[in-house]
Write the structure tokens for this entry.
Amino acid sequence: MQKSLLIDPGKCTGCLQCELACSYDNEGVFNPAKSRIKVFNFHDQGRFVPYTCTQCDEAWCLHACPVEAITVDRASGAKVVADDICVGCKVCTIACPFGTVNYNQSTGKVMKCDLCGGDPECAKACPTGAITYVDADWTGLERMRTWAAKTDAGQRATA
Amino acid sequence: MAWTGKILRVDLNRGTCKDEPLNMKWAMKYLGQRGLATKYLVEEVDPKVDPLSPNNKMIMATGPLTGTCASTAGRYSVITKGALTGAIACSNSGGFFGNEMKNAGYDMIIFEGRAKKPVYLFLEDGNAKLLDAKAFWGSSVWDTEDGIKKKHGDPLIRVASIGIAGEKGVKFACIVNDMHRAAGRSGVGTVMGSKNLKAVAIRGTLGVKVKSPKKFMKAVAAGKKVLADNAVTGQGLPAMGTQVLMNVINEIGALPTRNHLDVKFKGAKNISAEAMAEPRKSDGKANLIRNAACFGCTIGCGRVSAIDRTHYTVVNRPQYQKASGGLEYEAAWALGAATGVDDLDALTFANFICNEQGMDPISFGATVGAAMELYETGVITKKQTGGIELKFGSARALTDLAELTGKGEGFGAEIGLGSKRLCEKYKRPELAMQVKGQEFPAYDSRGIQGMGLGYATANRGACHLRSYTVASEVLGIPEKTDPLTTDGKAGLVKAFQDATAVVDSAGICVFTTFAWTLNDIAPQIDAACEGNWTVEKLLEVGERIWNLERQFNLAAGFTGKDDNLPKRLLKEAAKVGPAKGLVNGLDKMLPEYYQLRGWTKDGVPSNKTISRLAL
């Protein structure tokens, strides 16, 4: 069963532990500049928003790649860049409507979230639960549960 | 290894930037950041130097853990001879700037000399250059940070800069990074201003390595769990910030009020964490928007606040109606209790101005408190204040003076002298609530006795962050001691001072020590760094750093006589609360402290101590 990254910006404190974990897993060093997930600080509004690839089904990046370097990992559903095939043409970075595929000038390849093979480090590193990894079909489950708990119908039924 | 092994030396006289290798022999003895940069300063600067002379140096230094995923590991410090104090200064800041410096390839940046014209340092992955700062001179911290990012077309640049306060020589000017994180105390921003250095702007993408990654990740995970499971670091600080202390410290009669005339503040509840979270009448919103974290911090004690749009301070001033860094406990105390002001939004506004213009809110608020006493006792009048009715409790006086002091204008220029110089000027030196020229923070040493010894002996002048015995005396961490007695406080203060020197030299935040001991920290340092970093070795490093700082101060002209407290705390007893009738018992603690330190009765490290610590 596939899972999805579920991001709740309301819980994010902007600590960048996700970026540290991502860069460590992918690069072997701590380097937020090479993270596949990015936390945006909307300072004037007091909001922090982590943002990364949503792993589109009909992935623009995958279709755009002229050398078929981006493939689907069937188990996790992640769109994965094969570094040995990628030629660094950056067409995928243009194709992605969300900006989540980016060029890495130290490798000459593009980089994007690959869900760490189905066990994303960012979710494990997040200290506040702002990033979780949940059933891909039920990303709304917790929100539904919250609202369900607020309905008075259930209370009446048990009263 | 966790150090980059590289220093950037910036000669502002010549306008040159040069790399040099980090002295690893010193790193093994002083670890990094506070300790290691102090060693460099001691070796390179005459302790008698005028802090504002080109011969003083200013060092920005990271610790070995800075930039790693250890919790809170984004810290850097600024080490110099302090403009406010004339003593060794080491001001520690969070935010994201420290990590950027490490990722740009440097453990430290040493600034020497003075630029002929205003400049800023621009550093990108090992490439450093000094650029003309004419366009930014005369600008606030906020405008400078925005302006540099726009000029270079790169929103990911991290900036540390001074505001107008630092340019104008306000003695307690600080260096602000990431809009509202500050290397705050002792006038390090004043030193930066004297060098005609407006800002340091950095982009770093090189990555930070550790010695044994697997071992490190395990040690870091264990450390994070300890923080998460602890009531203070896991719940109290994220929910309420350091402001969780306001009502607690007021209740025990240790909240210095109106320039330390009182130990309890009636308005404390109005400026507390609880008040920040309370929806206000005008728009139903709370002052506090949310908590925020510095780089890598799994605690997240930072406050993000917004001022009521109908409040007098921000009407028709949209730039102050946005969210920004909210009140921490020390700022809320200094701007509030020390001045008798209990208008939460006025305090938040004054705090915004301190961030915007680069001023230490502790010294600013405390100096305003002293000036209010000068005014109320008739020593100064509206003639001196430029028409400001400087009464205790006046929010308007506080916020007007924040703006004036931030720009070094009017009576603000006198507030900018700090309390010691201000009260000396008006021949009432005893009204300055300070040690070695630096104003007290938010704990009255009549109600928390150990803090008195900590203040008196802190190498950078009165400071809570050198030996936070509040943890033990009030919160019971690591074990409860009686705040009203002097028994055992000499040993407690020494232990806190030595351990804190280690924390400040590692790249992590001192707030971790609400939950962590060196037993939690040593494995993280040891896995990251070459060298065998045991708890015992770290404690020796901490003690060595403390003594090195002491030696600098002694050589600068300080003596044991400067390990003192203002008469008010030694002669005027607390009027109410648990400490009623008590003064601080410094004379009971200090001789024992000197003895435990291995110092002579005059407070000088003995030859035996110097050789034991290999100084």
In short: The mean pLDDT of chain B is 98.
